[in-house]
Amino acid sequence: MKKLLTNDEFNSVLLNLSKEYDIYAPVTRPFKGTFSDTDLVKYEKITKLEEINLKDKSYYSAKEILLPIRQTIFYFNENEFKKPEGRTKKALVLLRSCDLHAVERVDNIYLNNKFSDEYYADAKKMVKFAVIGCPGKGWESCFCASMGTNTTENYNLGLTFKDGEVYSDVKDEELKEFFINAEDKEFAMEFVTENVEKVTVPENIELEDIINDEIWRDYDRCIKCGRCNFVCPTCTCFTTQDIFNRDNSKTGERRRVWASCHVDGFTSMAGGHEFRQKSGDRMRFKVMHKISDYKKRFGTHMCIGCGRCDDACPEYISYINCINKLSKKLGDNNE
Amino acid sequence: MSNIYMPERGEILSIVQESSIEWLFKVKTSIKPEPGQFIQLSIPMVGEAPISVADCNHEEGWIEFLIRKVGKVTDAIFNLQPGDSIFLRGAYGNCFPIDKYLGKRVVVVAGGSGTAPVRPLIKKLLKDEKTELELIFGFKDQESILFKKEIEEWRRKTPMILTVDKGCGIDGECVGLVTEYIPHLKMYEGFENLEVVIVGPPMMMKYSALEFLKLGIPEEKIWVSFERNMSCAVGKCGHCKIDETYVCLEGPIFNYVKAKKLLD
Asked: Which residues, including other chains, have CB under 8 Å from residue B215's CB and lie 6 or more apart?
């Protein structure tokens, strides 16, 4: 069902929707950026169009709606464990095509990697996705076209914002009732077809061929802050923690918090032994996961080409350059 | 759908000191692991730790864990007494492919606390009359020797080399690393019927495997057990991943053909 709405009409749709759905979209938080006088664009609940930042790429992805930064697995007291209720209100998430592909990547790990994670599965059931287009060639560090994630058909709602109007492609039956009164209008969803950055991903890499390569030593300058992992929409690692209440040490909760393969302690075992101590080796581990390991397991590359890792790195380490260098190197070797 | 993160209560039946630093905890539980698998042991308010199964009895409903006091969780476990509750989740990971071993000649090389996960395997293999078993156990020093009584019992039933890395040695025992004794094993004529299990510290496993390869034992006859920082044990948290392999899902037991490619 394709509809054309004015911005005002769309706002009243959002208002009606927000009675049933928490609507999440990229918004600007002034002066909350990494550097002084910079803004932060992140996902938050919205109720009207004017709150949405359609112009910029969000620094963080929509990942935390399905996979919170901190998530309680259960509460405990002396006698019992109790699972928290989880999401009770449905959610509608406005995101870009690449980020919707990222959700499919996360699904594989949380639903299809032998065991199904019921916290993620429960949250997923409550969430619908609205794809929004990107301007022009995307942003500086985007390479979705190279990763094949620039287009998608797999959305509940497609939105194109143009000249004070909203072109809506409503696929989801439950969402249709909110748009029913709007004017019918045939249109095609617009997606990015080309980016400024072009990335060649080397195929069929064997770990043993590249593990001792000099290329990784360039990345020993990484300061292991983990920002690249935290902004990545496909990074899914976590660490389990137990905490107890200060005023009643017999009650507390077990929770999981986002973890990063770049940050110290990720591979630490009891007794202090740690694998991959050098930053460059951690970079290798991450890069290989994104462009090789995951594909061996699930058939698609994990990386969706959003380029947020490049945007976030305080050391200006470019993951894009790394893949291209690796590709060139492996290509050279194959010749 | 069951919640994969929810542990169940177990009761500590007994705690026995095995070496100067390791204790054996026997826990009453309904969980029925296979040799080689591991359990997530947890204490609410402290956390979880993956511990391999040092023995189990499905009929009587108990599992034994060999635990060294080396971290937050194990520190807390050491404060427990028989009768106290402990929480368990599992069993996780694959197990030793025992069907492949039965009726063959099996060499088990184990070092230090690596003797714990092979203990239920050895017990099973000893029960099978058609399986020939040979053991090499290596420990750091005399005080570190684990399962002393059982080692004596096993020695009576099957050829065995017990070695300590250093010190004055023990009467009738060897001194040195397990790798030095691998060429002295008895069962080397014909490899088609031989299977080799190596469990211990990473370095020990690596050099032991190389020693067997030098003797001409094919890679596919060698089995090792990996240890990693496993936080979730169900393939989600990513801590134990090496290449496309999740040690908690596809391991901890790996054939050497696969294990040699798991580089970190």
From this structure: B182, B183, B188
The pLDDT of residue B170: 62
For B47, which of A242, A271, A293 is closest by C-beta distance? A242
The model's pLDDT over A260-307, given as tens digits with 9 standing for 90+, comes to 999 999 998 887 888 999 999 999 999 999 999 999 999 999 999 999
- A211 — contact with chain B (CB < 8 Å)? yes
ipTM (interface predicted TM): 0.93
Q: Which helix (H) or strand (E) holds A297?
A: helix A294-298
Contact criterion met (CB < 8 Å) for B48 and A81: no
Percent of chain A with pLDDT over 90: 86
Q: Which residue of B has its CA nearest to A262?
A: B239
DSSP string, B123-175: HHHHH-TT-EEEEEEEESSGGG---HHHHHHHHHHS-EEEEESSSS--TT-EE
Please, what's the b/e burial string for A308-335 (b: 16 or more CB within 10 A of its CB; e: otherwise)?
bbbbbbeeebbbbebbbebbeebeeeee
Nearest Cβ partner for B243 among A116, A270, A293: A293
Cβ-based contacts of B4 with chain A (< 8 Å): 115-118
